Amino acid sequence: MREIKYEEIVKNVRDIIVYSASNLPEDALNAMKEAYENEKSPVSKEVLKQLLENADIASSEARPLCQDTGLAVFFVKIGADVKVVGGLLKDAINDGTEKGYVEGYLRASTCHPFTRANNKDTVGYNLPAIIHLDIVEGDKIDIEYAAKGGGSENVSRARVFPPAAGKQGVIDYVRECISDAGPNPCPPLTVGVGIGGTFEKAVISSKHALFRNIGSVNEDPEMAEMEDVIKLELNKLGIGTMGMGGTETVLAVHIEANPCHIASLPVSVNVQCHSSRHTHITI
Amino acid sequence: MSETYHLTTPISDETISTLKSGDIVYLSGIIYTARDAAHKRLVDLLDEGKELPFDVKGAVIYFVGPTPPKPGDPIGSAGPTTSYRMDSYSPRLIAEGLKGMIGKGKRNKDVTDACQEHKAVYFGATGGAGALLGKQIKSAEVIAYEELGPEAVRKLEVVDFPVTVVNDAYGNDLYKIGRAQYEVK
Question: Which of A52, A101, A190, A225 has a Cα-to-Cα distance from A251 of 20 to 30 A?
């Protein structure tokens, strides 16, 4: 049994939150640079230039890339041979989240669903974090983190199709989602598509798909091909950077597929803005 | 052809008439911040016949909820939020004399109709460029609804704040024009 101190988890979580707010990960930065090179619209190209400049300023002056510093979302795998000493893993992640948002001068964007109040006693300081936990073999804790902004979350959607909808049904659904969203989710986008499973499994898979590095290839060749097809379709929409019109609307499409019920074809589309602040650490 | 203008607030009807979708504008002067919660309160005040916390005539409202400032800075990162959430409130403020709104994303017909009827424009700022845009804000002061935190109404002094005219006072929409140019049917 390996012992990991509660405080060590708190510190690690705090640090990745503060760092991610100002530093676009390399995969996202490279994808944005590539979009800048490829973009045919002069207006979108100009806005992409502004965004690359913004990434520069954010990183060199340690300012948040975007004022929407997101809700803190975690996918955590804890090894069965790990014992957290001094408290619960979930509490450590929440404590680290609070520290990160307060000490990093990040915006607390969590509120009560109806009163909209950010009350420290209940949901303040961006708590609770959204945590997806899994237990795996080994003696490590694997943490994937992303700061998820509201604008792109607001255009995300899910639906359970009849099986006859098939691949084309999924492609059409994703296209409709991104077309309707237009400029609102801050393109160029990463599009996470969860296919199969149950209703909620599809949704969580579409979220997790956004944590994958942009530019990585899907391990399933069938899904890899489908990702290419969808990306091509979406870039025909002409939305461009921030909806100004252009050829580069989508940086990547990531699919996570799961076996599903014989009666259903669940599909979820989770949208990520260009500020894809995600990171991965192992403790 | 897109033009570039340097404008100082408050903005006159005459100036609004010269602006066209696609024009680039560098705004200077005083602008006010408000998001959903603040908009609701502003419109409630109008409904009750009470005075607004700032003079809306000729004013520009920026849809933003900034990050907290670091010590010594006037404001943190401050890029635009998605504007449609203000659609149900904006026409009322436009009718009262609001001349400009800064945000990102589509507006509905009620807003663009109000822009035509009362001469107002909707500016787009670059979403996700919060660090860059925050640097164009020279001072910030909460003037109402402090308890709303990032959603409080702030009076900002901006210098050469870069925006693009999305919806002008003639019914044009840059999002539609731009997309139509690059859409592959």
Answer: A101
